[in-house]
């Protein structure tokens, strides 16, 4: 390619450069002074000299969360063809067509049925109306939670340091948006009324959204995502809900995010231990406890004991909390046996012939794949090794 240089006026070029350098040094100095004395100087936490956001590159976090999220990015059109999404690329659609062509005629018919309104008919064959209502009541609890997850992650984006952490949070915002809209369509295809938020969940989600700065990580990525992880892990083997496995995989990355972030930007001792912060955390967890008896009837309808689910969730949440450095009061060693007593006390009162059970040792997540994902999120926390 032939590139022809155009003539310019050298003196004018130099004058423009000098003007820019002068104004640059004046404005940057003024903004620096304003920032130092607490006035609003530069707003963007961005270092254009270093070509990084404040906090540095943090490529480790970028690889663990942003790169991995994109690698595992799933499309509703491909994974849930019975929902009204057209989010697949041309290449993905071609691949789907090829896959369909290689199926036997019976398999093709089954796939066709799934991609048509027959999905609803299949739900009607698989479930009674009461069972459909129970599933919608359970799933909508997390469906409304996805709206808050979207809101909270978008705000958290403004509070994290480094290019890698911002890239990670940006993927979470995208995934929560997808979770909200896809789950909404899935829930609505059950054709039963969708309940409002229960007041216990309302309190949990509002206090998470109102939490200051990185405290949002506790309410959202530890408590709410811990509940979501457990719920998707428990429901993804139900007929018609297989797509929830992918939600589960995304949530596992979200629960690991605070732990991975705090490795580079640890909470201060005061942030971890101060009594006011511990009390705020307890205030977030308490309404979640009241959700358990509230969901008991609907969970029982689909064969799940609410206290097995509650025990499973609380064990996972306290574990994630400790790993992230969010200390709790009372400590998990005191809290978990206390909760076990509380659960058994409630069951003694409400279930004839109840004998003591270790609900806190239960695990309601089902399926080898699901359990492996949780082992990684809860155990190693480093998410880069899987998939
Ligand atoms: Fe989500
Ligand atoms: Fe999430």
What would you note in describing this structure?
By secondary structure, the chain is mostly helical. It has a domain at 126-379: Ferritin, CATH 1.20.1260. It is built from 16 helices and two strands. It has helices at residues 10-36, 59-71, 76-79, 90-101, 105-115, 118-126, 129-156, 163-188, 199-210, 215-235, 244-264, 269-273, 275-301, 306-324, 332-350, 368-380, and strands spanning 46-47, 52-53. Strands 1-2 form a two-stranded antiparallel sheet. Helix 7 packs antiparallel against helix 10 and helix 11 runs parallel beside helix 16. It is flat. The relative contact order is 0.10. Bound molecules: fe (ii) ion (2 copies). Residues 149, 176, 225, 251, 254 line the site of one fe (ii) ion.
Q: What is the strand content?
A: under 5%
Task: Specify the number of helices.
Answer: 16
CA radius of gyration: 25 Å
Instruction: Output the structural class.
Output: mainly alpha
The main pleated sheet reads as: 2 strands, antiparallel
Poorly predicted ranges: 381-387
Main traits of this protein?
387 residues, mainly alpha, Ferritin, two-stranded antiparallel ribbon, 16 helices, 2 strands, 1% strand, disordered C terminus, binds fe (ii) ion
Summarize, please.
With 387 residues, the chain is mainly alpha-helical. The protein has helices at 10-36, 59-71, 76-79, 90-101, 105-115, 118-126, 129-156, 163-188, 199-210, 215-235, 244-264, 269-273, 275-301, 306-324, 332-350, 368-380, and strands at residues 46-47, 52-53. The protein has a domain at 126-379: Ferritin (Up-down Bundle), CATH 1.20.1260.
């Amino acid at each position: 390619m032939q590139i022809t240089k155009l003539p310019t006026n050298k003196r004018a070029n130099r004058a423009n450069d000098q003007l820019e350098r002068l104004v640059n040094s004046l404005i940057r100095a003024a903004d620096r002074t304003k920032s130092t004395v607490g006035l609003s100087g530069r707003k963007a936490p961005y270092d254009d000299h270093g070509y990084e956001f404040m906090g540095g590159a943090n490529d480790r976090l970028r690889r663990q969360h942003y790169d991995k999220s994109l690698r595992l990015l799933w499309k509703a059109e491909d994974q849930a063809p019975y929902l009204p999404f057209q989010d697949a690329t041309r290449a993905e659609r071609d691949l789907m067509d090829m896959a369909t062509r290689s199926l036997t005629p019976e398999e093709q018919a089954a796939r066709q049925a799934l991609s048509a309104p027959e999905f609803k008919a299949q739900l009607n064959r698989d479930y009674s109306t009461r069972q459909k209502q129970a599933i919608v009541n359970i799933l909508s609890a997390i469906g409304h939670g996805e709206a808050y997850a979207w809101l909270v992650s978008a705000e958290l984006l403004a509070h994290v340091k480094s290019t890698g952490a911002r890239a990670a949070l940006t993927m979470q915002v995208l995934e929560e948006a997808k979770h909200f809209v896809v789950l909404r369509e899935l829930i609505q295809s059950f054709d039963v009324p969708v309940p409002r938020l229960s007041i216990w969940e309302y309190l949990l989600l509002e206090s998470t959204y109102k939490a200051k700065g990185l405290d949002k990580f506790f309410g959202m990525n530890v408590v709410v995502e811990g509940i979501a992880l457990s719920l998707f892990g428990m429901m993804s083997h139900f007929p018609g809900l297989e797509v929830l496995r992918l939600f589960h995989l995304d949530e596992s990355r979200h629960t690991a995010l605070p732990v991975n972030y705090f490795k580079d930007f640890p909470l201060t001792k005061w942030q971890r231990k101060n009594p006011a912060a511990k009390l705020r955390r307890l205030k977030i967890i308490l309404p979640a406890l009241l959700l358990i008896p509230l969901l008991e009837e609907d969970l029982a309808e689909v064969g799940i004991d609410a206290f097995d689910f509650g025990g499973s969730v609380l064990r996972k949440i306290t574990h994630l909390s400790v790993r992230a450095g969010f200390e709790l009061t009372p400590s998990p060693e005191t809290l978990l046996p206390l909760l076990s007593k509380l659960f058994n006390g409630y069951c003694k009162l409400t279930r004839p012939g109840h004998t003591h059970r270790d609900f806190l040792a239960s695990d309601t997540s089902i399926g080898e794949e699901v359990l492996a994902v949780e082992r990684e999120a809860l155990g190693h926390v480093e998410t880069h090794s899987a998939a």
